[in-house]
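Reviewers of the previous submission asked for a worked example of the structure-prediction workflow described in the proposal, so we include one complete record here. The input consisted solely of the amino acid sequence. No template or homolog information was supplied to the procedure at any stage.
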Amino acid sequence: MNHERRLWRLKEMTPGLVGQRLQERPALIVPVGTTEQHGPHLPLGCDTIIVERLADDLSEAFGIPRTPTVEYGVHAAARPLPGGATLRRRTLHRVMNELIESWEEGAGVREFFIITAQSSEAHLEALSAIRTDEATVQVMDIFSIDFSSILERPAPIHGGELDTSLLLFLAPQLVRMELARDFDLPPSMLTRYRPGHSRHLPEGSPGSVGYPSLASAQKGERLYRFILDRVSSCLTRS
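From that input alone, the workflow returned the following structure tokens.
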């Protein structure tokens, strides 16, 4: 790749520097996070922290500017823990449409790589239905990746082994493992529970579902490198 290897954060760049970057490749990386509970042991910005790190690493590797993070997404917790906040699907859709339109028309961007860590059906619908004139939009939900080769208990995913391992690697100072509680879904509930689709937390759940006790920083590093490799393949041009 013929570019200086450095991190290109849009909010830290001058208009002239943005123009130079986009002239080489008219593309932007757009991280979209959430502000929601992942159990008593993880921060509300768990998903956001993950996609922000990915956006930074991808920006540095590919020389593509990365936009400021959209820190709110769509989810539906019937028992929300303090601090969580959600957008309606149509609200997120409108916000993303207007942002993409601004960058496409105002800066001539022709490739958008939206990275998210929220498998909610409504959340992904809001991102996948973005309208453009000429630009392509690729939405990458990192939780759609198959992690069964790394995780001991790969399903379900919400504040369990996957999320907790990633945060132990990326931001260990924010994880309160002494508060983590495993929550095993009975078979009758497992068939109905769709991670990301429904955040209606099962009765008795601490706000998470799965096995955070199986998490480790070493596993988190393996998971992160695995995700980074998979997402990188989507940004590589032929």
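The longest strand covers residues 27-32. We consider this example representative of the routine output the project will generate in years two and three.
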